[in-house]
């Protein structure tokens, strides 16, 4: 079976700063893969490099066995879509939900917009009553659902998720995570999920890569992490930190 | 334990086009020299509670309370001038994001010295010495260098330490921290918390820690108030949080994914109208 996504020796350089350096991993078709690390670890930059939003200095990225060229084709974006962290920033404030969802269809010359928009809204649990609203009339969780609907409307096979729930309340996070899991199961999607929250990543992903200062630290399965079969000190440190505050006696 | 702050039936409401909206609806608690957590989701009124105590509610809003007394001072009867004298000197507040709460065009050291000057607690060489000592107390390794930096030149964690230094340099009796670590990474978050923890313990301050993060609050505070729709639905000792009785608190705890436990799908909150009643 070919990998849905394979990254080899990826480096992203901004001026003299190596934001990502020597990152390699592959994601099987239908798998959910996590990238974990603190701010500045380069985890989001890896995702942005895949989506064509960050300059690739070195290394290759292949989708379904095909190495992708520097300039992304339209067909690339039909296969790979991204959901961003901040649902307040990722939707155009003066476009209705209908327009936000119609745009990718128009760009790709896909007809049947009416049916697809209603279906996409339904799929993310928003009724058609939301169709002609503006983003400011929606809650954070509802906006993130719209962002997911917009990514799904092109029927991609790979979804890049950049901290999709970190701007949301815990209860809303649970709803959005459940939604993402349902959609993946129904459509057999491949996910690459970036998060600083170890618990979220282990909940959503089968395998994960821990990153620090732009470099890979440890690749492990969620089962290993849950069972504390951890090789590196840094991952252990992250693990301890995620358990909450501890007062030294 | 003598109480530092008495809050009784605090209400904050905002006029909107469709009538008054009550953000805080009858909150009561007392604070001693302890760490009190206020937890809730967006819109639960937790931040407005903190702001009302400090007197930072927007002028068009209405604040009422049966009692709002800080160390014998009736805050509701106090004039704007008296409240301003309290703010920063005896009651201080740490906000969420140092990127927005520090003055971007003023050196960090000068901002901290300004607090001292504003409250008549020294200026010149003496203020400089105290500022440097305070920067050291929040574990900034090279205080001399950081003193001369602008906020954009430091990391988020460093900025938040500078913010805490600024708030504590006047040696307040009470600190309100509104999501003080939510913009920080987990490991930095814990460093900042342990600094806060030590300072609170050493100086015998009262701390109100406002956060949406139930797990963090329960591991840091002594006592937790859980707010929902402007009311306190449950008050519980932090170490007994897992024995909480209220379905909302339980729901909030359960909907978090946990390491080493798999719940698919995650339980979601089933909000009951009677919680808000």
TrEMBL record, chain A:
Lineage start: Bacteria, Pseudomonadati, Pseudomonadota, Alphaproteobacteria, Hyphomicrobiales
Family designation: Belongs to the ABC transporter superfamily. Glutathione importer (TC 3.A.1.5.11) family.
Annotated compartments: Cell inner membrane; Membrane
Protein name according to UniProt: Glutathione import ATP-binding protein GsiA
The ABC transporter domain, residue ranges: 5-238
The entry's keywords: ATP-binding, Cell inner membrane, Cell membrane, Membrane, Nucleotide-binding, Translocase, Transport
Membrane association type: Peripheral membrane protein
Coiled-coil annotated residue ranges, if any: none
InterPro entries in UniProt: AAA+_ATPase, ABC_transp_ATP-bind, ABC_transporter-like_ATP-bd, ABC_transporter-like_CS, P-loop_NTPase
Catalysed conversion reaction: glutathione(out) + ATP + H2O = glutathione(in) + ADP + phosphate + H(+)
Residue spans crossing the bilayer: none
TrEMBL record, chain B:
Tagged with keyword Ribonucleoprotein: no
Residue span, ABC transporter domain: 5-254
Gene Ontology CC annotations of this record: plasma membrane
Protein origin, superkingdom: Bacteria
Subcellular location(s) per record: Cell inner membrane
UniProt keyword terms in alphabetical order: ATP-binding, Cell membrane, Membrane, Nucleotide-binding, Transport
Membrane protein topology class: Peripheral membrane protein
Pfam families: ABC_tran
GO molecular function, one term: ATP binding
GO biological process: transmembrane transport
InterPro entries (UniProt xref): AAA+_ATPase, ABC_Ni/Peptide_Import, ABC_transporter-like_ATP-bd, P-loop_NTPase
Family classification: Belongs to the ABC transporter superfamily.
Protein name: Peptide ABC transporter ATP-binding protein
Origin species: Chelatococcus daeguensis
Lineage, top ranks: Bacteria, Pseudomonadati, Pseudomonadota, Alphaproteobacteria, Hyphomicrobiales
